[in-house]
Amino acid sequence: xxxxxxxxxxxxxMDAYTPPDSSxxxxxxxxxxxxxxxxxxxxxxxxxxxxxxxxxxxxLADSLAHTxxxxxxxxxxxxxxxHLTQSxxxxxxxxxxxxxxxxxxxxxxxxxxxxENGGSLRRSCEFGxxxxxxxxxxxxxxxIGTIARNTQxxxxxxxxxxxxxxxxxxRVSAKIQQLVNTLKMxxxxxxxEFFVDDFEELLEVQQPDPKQPRPEGAEMLAVSGEALGxxxxxxxxxxxALQRWGTISPKAPCLTSLDTTGKPLYVLTYGxxxxxxxxxxxxxxxxxGSKQEPMLRPxxxxxxxxxxxxxxxxxxxxxxxxxxxxxxxPIEVPLTRKDAGSQQIGFLLGSCGVTVALTSDAxxxxxxxxxxxxxxxxxxxxxxxxxxxxSKHLSKPPRDWFPHIKDANxxxxxIEYKTCKDGSVLGVTVMRIALLTHCQSLTQSCGYTEAETIxxxxxxxxxxxxxxxxxxxxxNMMHVISVPYSLMKVNPLSWIQKVYHFxxxxxCVKSRDMHxxxxxxxxxxxxxxxxLRMLLVADGSNxxxxxxCDAFLNVFQSKGLRSEVICPCASSPxxxxxxxxxxxxxxxxPPGRGVLSMQGLSYSVVRVDTEERLSVLxxxxxxxxxxxxxxxxxxxxxxxxxxKTDEIGELCVCSVATGTSYYGLTGMTKNTFEVFPxxxxxxxxxxxxFVRTGLLGFVGPGGLVFISGKMDGLIMVSGRRHNADDIVxxxxxxxxxxxxxxxxxxxxxxxxxxxxxIVVVAEQRPDSTEEDSFQWMSRVLQAIDSIHGVxxxxxxxxxxxxxxxxxxxxxxxxxxxxxxxEGGLHxxxxxxxxxxxxTNLPKPRQKQPEIGPASVMVGNLVSGKRIAMASGRDLGQxxxxxxxxxxxxxxxxxxxxxxxxxxxxxxxxRGLVSSSLTCxxxxxxxxRVAALLLxxxxxxxxxxxxxxxxPGIDLIAxxxxxxYAGCVPITVRPxxxxxxxxxxxxxxxIVEVSRSACVMTTAVICKxxxxxxxxxxxxxxxWPPVLDTDDLPKKKPPALYKPCxxxxxxxxxxxxxxxxxxxxxxMSHNAVGAFCRSVKLQCELYPSREVAICLDPYCxxxxxLWCLCSVYSGHQSILIPPVELESNPALWLLAVSQLRVRDxxxxxxxxxxxxxxxxLQTEAxxxxxxxxxxxxxxxxxxxxxxxxxxxxxxxxxxxDLGLHPRSVSTAFGCRVNLAICLQGTSGPDPTTVYVDMRxxxxxxxxxxxxxxxxxxxxxxxxxxxPGVRIIIANPETKGPLGDSHLGEIWVHSAHNxxxxxxxxxxxxxxxxxxxxxxxxxxxxxxxxxxxxxGFLRRTELTDASGERHDALYVVGxxxxxxxxxxxxxxxxxxxxxxxxxxxxxxxxxxxxxxxxLVVVIELEGSEQxxxxxxxxxTKAVLEEHYLIVGVVVVTDIxxxxxxxxxxxxxxxxxxxxxxxxxxxIYVAYNM
Length: 1471
Description:
60 strands
C-alpha cells in the first residue's frame, strides 16, 4: 500500500516535505481556461431563464445605464464604497418572463443583449425600469438605437452588445431569418434503412449516487474587502511615480540583478530607470519607420522578449513602453523554431498586431539565425522587427522632448499572456487605471513602505513576479533583488542568503523554491530569516503548497523565521490578485486551515474530516479579499448562480483592479470578464460585472478565502470532479520516490467512450529498473483509486527529460497530451487499467428465446419478409463432353479429338514458358504414371495416393495418372526447404489422416523427405512407400481403369482452416463433373479461351481451376505459381498483359503482394508496356468476407494501366462446397451495402447510409454459380430466415462435398455439415452447412434471365467469431480498427483467451514506439467495439502466421502466445 497521503499535510519526517516542483503544473503553462457551454445550450432551457429573469432587472439596468456607461471610472470609484445587497424583489410579471422566448427572431435575441455563454444573464443596460424582461416585442427598434449609441470601448477592443455577435444596428436579412426559422423546425424522422442512434446497445448512463453529499448551507453573500484607503501622496499614475522617484531620489537603488554565482551584476537606480525609459520611449516613437510614417503610434502593441536572467533590460523596456503609451506584451524567449507552445505565442502576437519586438543585446545574439545572419520567422509568428534596447544603440532625445505623463485612464497598459488547458494562448488586457489600483491595493494589503528591500524569485514578466517586483515596487520606491532561475538551479539556497545579506523585509517565492531550499539545507551558519516580515507564497492556493510551508517553517524557525510571516496568496491572469494573507505582528492568531473530505470535494461539497483519514485534503487559507474588491462564489457551469456556503464553486471578483478582456476575443471576454452572478431568487448580486478567476474554492469563516483547485485542472469523471493537482500530490505521496522525478508529472484527461479518463505521465529516473517502476506504478494506481475513488486509464513512464518543457522548466501540459494522443510520447513503461475505470460499457447481451415456427411461417414469408433463398441458373445438358460422367474419360476423348491442343502452360519466375502440355501429352504422361503405380506400388483400386508436388505440370499428370489407375489422389503442399520443422509435420499429418498407401513426388522432394532435418522432425520409418516420378516407365498400363459408380470417390480435398483444423472433404466423380460444368457456364470457358491462374493448386477452387477445368472445358490455362512472385512481383500482371488474357484468378496474398510490391513502380511498368485494358474478369478466390479495402486499393493502383475497376471481383467457397459464388463474365456488377456493425454483433442486419457511425461496408461475394441453391438459416434453431437477416449460409448443389474423411470413423460427429434439413418450411431438401454467417438481399438489378438479382453477402466464419460479453465479434472488424490507429501498425490479429481479448500487432518502426501503441489500440477498440482489450502484444513484422490463401492463422498465433513463442517486443496486460 502506498505510504499515507497525510504525509503531505502534517509534519512528520523530512522526506515527506517534498511537494512536487510546482512548475509541473503551476508555472501557469496550463493556466485557467473556461470550458463553458455555448450560448445555445443555455438559451434552450427556459426553466433557467425563468429562474434568472426577475422583474427588478430593469431597475438595476437603469441605474447601471446612468452611472456605468456614462462615466466608467466614476462607476468604478463608486463601486469600492457600494454596499452590495442581494436582490430579492420578485416582479409581478415573473410568470411572463420566458413567455415566447422560443419564437424570438435573431434580431430579437440581439436586442436582448444576452451573453455568449450560459454564464452571464446579461441585461441590456438601456431598458426602462418599468419594462418587462424580455421587453415587449414592438418596442425593440427604439432600444436597438440606444444600444448602438451607448456602446462603450474598453482597452483597445470593441464591445458588442449582442450575444449572437450580430452588430446591433444591422438588420437581419430575410434569407438568414428564413434559415433560422428552418433550423427551429422539428426534424423529420430518419428513414428505416438509415442510421438511427436509438440502438439497444446504449452506453450505461452513470446513475447519481443516492448517498452522495449535497450542499446544505445557506446561500453565500458576496464578501467585500476593506475600503481602499486613499493616501494623499499616492501618485496619479505609475509613470508619475517613476518621474517622482527618478527626479527626487535618482541615486536610490531600484533593482539589483545577480549573475549565476550569486554576485550582484548590476544595480539599477531610479534615476537610471527614469532616464533610460525616456530615451527608449523617444526612440520607439521617433526612430522606427520614417517621420511621416512612424512604425509605432500610441496604443500599438509591442512584444517584450527578454531572458529570465535580465530583469534590468526588461524593466527599462516595460517603463519605456508605458511612457511612449505603447502596449507591452511580455513573452518568453523562443529558443528554437519549434519550442513547445511557441506557435501559440506567435498566434497571440499576430492577433495583437505586433510588428516590433524589443529585446536585449545578449538575447538578440542568442536567437537562432539563418545562414545570412537574419533571425528566421518562427513557426506561426508574424514578421517582426527586432529592436535592441541597450542605451548605446539608442539616440538621445532632444532637450525639448518629454513624455506626456497622464493620470491613469482606461487605455490598455499592458497585455499578459495566459496559456489555456488546450495549449491556446490568450492575451489579458490590463487598463492603466486597473494597473494603478492593483498596485495601491497590494501596497495596502502587504503594508509596503518606501525604500523596503524585497527579494523576488518569481518570473518578473508575468503574474505575481511582475505585480510585486516590477510595478508595485516602483510605486513605493522599493529595492528589488531579482534571483534568476539559473542561479536557483545551481544554488537553491541563494534566495535565503540574499534575504540575510540585504536584510530584506519581503520575499516572493513559490512552493518549489521553499522545497529546493529544504533539500539543499545543511546546517548553514551564515543565514537568518529574522528580517522577513512577509514571505509571499505565489502558488499558496495550490493544494500541495501547505506541506511546503509547514516543512519550511519547521526547519527554518530556528533561523529566525516566524510563522505569521508566511503569506500565501491566490491570483489569476484575469482577476490579478484575488486574495492575500496579510502579514501580522501578532503571532497568537493561527492561520486558517481546513481538512476536507476528498469524496465531498469530488461532488463540490465542503465536508470537514479528520487528518487520520487517508482520503482528505488539507488546505490553507489565502487570506482575505483584496481592498476595494467584492468576491462571490458561483457555479462553474451554466448560469452563474451563487453557491451555498458549504459548496465549492468558481470565485468571481468585482473590482477596478482586474483584467478587462481577452484581446480581440469578444465572445470569450463576455464569458469571463462580464459575469453577472444571480441569486437563487433570480435577482442580480450586483449591477456591476464580475470577472471569473478560474479558481475553485469557497469563503470560510471570518471571510477567509480557501482555494481547492483550478478550473483548468478540473477533470470530470462520471459526474464527479477531480483536480489534477490533487492527483499529482497523491502520486508524489507514494514512497519510495526514487523512481521518478519530482515535479515532472503530468496529469490530464482524455475522452474515451463519452467520458473523461485520467492519464498520468511521469519522467522515470535512468537508474530505476523495470521491476521497481512497475511496483511504484501499481502502488500509485491503488493510491489514486483508494484516495480519490477514481480509476486511472493509463499510467506511463517516459525517459528522463523527454516531456515537452515550458520556458521555466515545468511540463507543457497541452503538448504532452497532444503527444499522448498522436502516439509520440515513446514511454518506457505503461500500465493501463481500463477494467477499473471504464464503467459505462453497455450491459452484456442476454440471448432471447427464438420465436417458434408456427407464428412465423406464412407461405414463403418469414415474419412478414420473403424467405432468404436464392439460386444460380440451371445446369443444362448441351455440350459434347457432357456425355461423359468421368473426367478421365473426358481427357481420353480430348486426346483423340484434339491431340495437339495445348491445355496447360507453366511460366517461370522470368515470365518465360518453362513447360506446356497438350491433350495427348497429358494423356500419355498420365498413362505412364498409372503404369508406375500398378507396377512399382502394387496398388489396388480405391487406394489413396498423396501427391507432394510443387505447383506445376507434374502435379496435373500425377493426378490424372491416379484416376487412370483407379486410385484416389490427395494433393499436398510440399514442405518448405528453409522451414522443414514447421511445414513437414502438416504433410505427415495429411498422409496419415488420409491413409495414403503411397506418396508420389519429384526426385528433389524425395531427397528432402530423407534429409537430416526431416528425420529430426518426424519419424521417417512409418512413411508409406515414396515414388519418384521423374523417371517414369516407358510402357503403358495393361488397361485404364473404367469407373462405374459416379458417386464413388474421385479425390480428397484436404485443407487446414484458419482455426488450425485439418479436414479432408470427399469429392465424388459426380460432384467433380457438376463443378467443372458450373464454372464453365459461369466463366464462359471454351477451347479458344486462355485463363491465367495465379493460385496455389492444393485445395478448394484453386485446385479445381489449376487441374480440372482445362480438361473439362478445353481452354488453355496459363499457370503462374504464386511462390514465383516473391522474386518477381510483376510476373502475374506482365503475363496477363503480354499473353492478352481476358480472365484471370488470384488469391488475396497475390493481390496484396502486387499492391505493396508494385505501388511505386506503375510508371516503370507502363514503360515496359504493361496493359491491363483487355482484362474482363480478375477474380479473387477466397473463403472469407471480401476484403474491400484491398480490392479497391488494387483497382485504384492499376487503373492507370488500363484495369477497369468493375473487372475486379471475388469468389466464395468453403469446405462443404468449394465454390458457391463466382462473379463470372456476365451479370450485374457486384453491389456494396453498409451495415451497422453494432447490429451485426447481435446477429442482426441493419442497413445504414455510407459514412454513418459504426458503418461497415460489405461487398457481394460474386454471383451464385449455376446449379447452386442457397438459403439463410438460423444456426441454432435451423429455421429459415427472412431477406436481409443474418444467419448461416446453407447450400444445396450437385457439387457439394459428400462428407468429411477422417479415416477413423468419426464422420458422424459433423455429419450434419453435409446433410442438414430445415426444422420447418421445406424440410425435404438436403443442405450442406457452410459454417459462414451472411445474408441475402434482393437488389433492384436484374440478371441475365431477367429476374431480380439476389446478392449474397458473407460476414464471417462461425468458428472464427468470438463470443464476448454475450455478443458475436468477427476478428477482422476489430483488426481493421486497430490497423487504422497508427501508421506503424503493419498487421494485426486478435483472438480470445479465457474471457480476455488479446491483440497482437506487428510494429514497423523503432522499438521505442512500441508502447505508444498500447493506449491507442485500447482506446480504439473501446470506442468502436465497446470491448476492453485484455492483452496487447507488440511484435516484429512477420510474426502473425498467414496461410497460402492470405488468411491469418489466428489459432496458431494463440498457441504461440500461450507457449510464449512469439518473442514479443512488449506485452501489456491491461489490469
